Predict the 3D structure of the following.
Amino acid sequence: MSATFASLRYVNYRYWFIASLIASTGAWLQRVAQDWYVLTVLTDHDASQVGVVTALQFMPIILFSAHAGVLADRIPGRRLLQCTQVGVGLVSLIIGLVVMTGTGQLWHQYVLAFISGTISAIDTPARQSFVGELVPADKMANAVALNATAFHTARLIGPASAGFFIDWWGVGPVFLIDAGMFAAPVIALALMRADRLYPRTLVPRARGQLAESVAYVHSRTDIRIILALIFVVSALGMNFQMTSALMATTVFGKAAGSFGILSSFMALGSILGATGAARRAPRLRTILMGAVFYGSAEIALGLAPSYWWFALLSIPTGFGMLTMNTSANALVQTRTEPDKRGRVMALYSLVFLGATPIGSPFIGWVGTTFGARWALLVGGIASLGIALVCGAWAMIHWKGRVVRRPSFPWVGVDADSSVDAPRRSVTSA
């Protein structure tokens, strides 16, 4: 088996990979179907109500992610994930029954969106820390990258499948199909062989555990620099749900449905970036060069002369985005002490996901005031700028240097960030 798919040698990870692909496809089915239901059935094409539902899905992630990380470090991963997957499936089942019986109201979707977001807030750090129990430590980065590949493969399959199912059967059965798909991770978790797991030490209940994780991250400049980079890029450079739609409709004069094609091109590049990251160990220089490449590609997107040029340039943009994101996620996981991994990854998710609602209103204002191209250009310039700032900081702090290499990336920052990766608890410092 090639190095790209090395983690699939482990039976428990194979179960999880297949189940994650199925469940992630179901999640995209639910997202598209819920937006369609709110837009066409519960309202008269009121996009603002779709925005409210989306906001209610993200709000719990911002509110509860940090505390969910504490749970992830206290509770066995299999047990916690079985609960969250059952919960998500039940939400889809309830929505499906409400739709099928014709009793749905808008406020139902508000409540269910918030409940779904709350479950997702608990699920995300648990899911990320659980990877370390499925494969040995030296394969964790590869497993993280393959997880990203599964997610973005689902991103290609899910929206297209949702459109097909809605046309053929209506929106109600889509939710029922989605509910059934979330049974896959529950079954996979039950089938896993306990003797093939790599259990981590659970943290007993104690006061101050959240503060301890914040102090730990504060003591780790290698993690802090990654969080700073991810925050700026996520806030200003990853608003494609909005910017791509604006470019397609206001600049290129396309129908709203053409946005789906752009999403597919972006997802294709994302898969290439994730599989590329799976071949190599995560390094800070890979993250920085991925961010430089991504920022440059986003600037090119803003200057694209036509719709199809925009679509083609979305492929390298997706590639750079996932090279950066997957490597950053893997590096933080592999460099974090196992007993703090859930809490640290919760903080990572909070920065990654919480930055978008902060930056998107500003990018939206830029797009409305100055045009859609400037919304992309500002995001690209910000992403490129923070990558260069972080690279300069690394060269100064870690006595790094710019080097040339025969393989991609052809240039990079060669610095020893391991000086800021202590294998000890901050309480012993």
Summary: Residues 421-429 have pLDDT under 50 and may be disordered. The two ends are 42 Å apart (CA to CA).
